[in-house]
Amino acid sequence: MTERVAIVTGAAQGIGAAIAKELAADGVKVVVTDINIDGATKVAEEIGAVAKRLDVSDPEQANAVVAETVAELGRLDILVNNAGLVPYTPFDDLTIEQWRRTFSVNGEGLFNMTKAAVEAMKANEYGRIVNIASNTFVAGTPNCADYVATKGAVVGFTRAVAGEIGKYGITINAVAPGITASEGVFTTGHGEGFDYVVPMQAFNRRAVPADIAPAVAFLASEKAEWVTGQLLVVDGGHTRN
Ligand SMILES: NC(=O)c1ccc[n+]([C@@H]2O[C@H](COP(=O)([O-])OP(=O)(O)OC[C@H]3O[C@@H](n4cnc5c(N)ncnc54)[C@H](O)[C@@H]3O)[C@@H](O)[C@H]2O)c1
């Protein structure tokens, strides 16, 4: 994928950082973005990439980062919408404020970045958009209804938009990881989920971010031309629908 240019959101750590590394290893010029610029800079330095601060919930920042990428690197071929909040709150304690906050990043962030990227990709009649969903949408995982609802939104958005942007040569797909040992998982209540989930997987170990990245890289590649509007579950066989 040499010469291709990608933006990965939420790439300062966890699954996003693994995706940035995987794409860079495939020869892609990666723009590592995150609200945490120090973390993004560290990842970018490691893979010889560019880092940019980006809060995906802000449409102006989304537009600016896409415009800067095109100005500095000449084009935009790949967008990976990975940035996300992963809260863990029982429904009894869930508030409308938290619901809005989770949707502002996981839902509006997805919209802001996709809107800006599609405009840039139209120019080259080529694009690959990969949205990070979650297998919690398939499993109906409890104690994170706001989060699971945003991931349902990711799947619905992916399916709906696919039919409208194929005419520009752009594909859009979603990848649904299962529980994965990222930094974020261990700073929330999700980490305890491994004890419950690992025995249900086909493989008896915890997933790590590097287990998720190759599926994303495939959907971001030229070879995935005939795949669009799909949800690819990457969870070691935890959910088998
Ligand atoms: N780890 C899992 O078990 C798991 C499972 C399924 C899906 N996912 C999804 O994978 C993605 C990455 O998750 P992770 O586990 O690596 O999380 P993480 O918390 O380790 O990393 C998330 C990154 O997103 C960044 N971020 C947060 N808000 C942002 C914003 N407004 N704008 C830009 N960046 C922002 C954070 O700074 C952080 O670097 C998320 O979309 C998450 O929902 C994770």
UniProtKB/TrEMBL annotation:
Which Gene3D superfamilies does the entry link to?
Answer: NAD(P)-binding Rossmann-like Domain (3.40.50.720)
* UniProt-listed InterPro entries: NAD(P)-bd_dom_sf, Sc_DH/Rdtase_CS, SDR, SDR_fam
Pfam families in the record? adh_short_C2
Q: Which domain of life is it from?
A: Bacteria
Record-stated family: Belongs to the short-chain dehydrogenases/reductases (SDR) family.
Name assigned to this protein: Pyridoxal 4-dehydrogenase
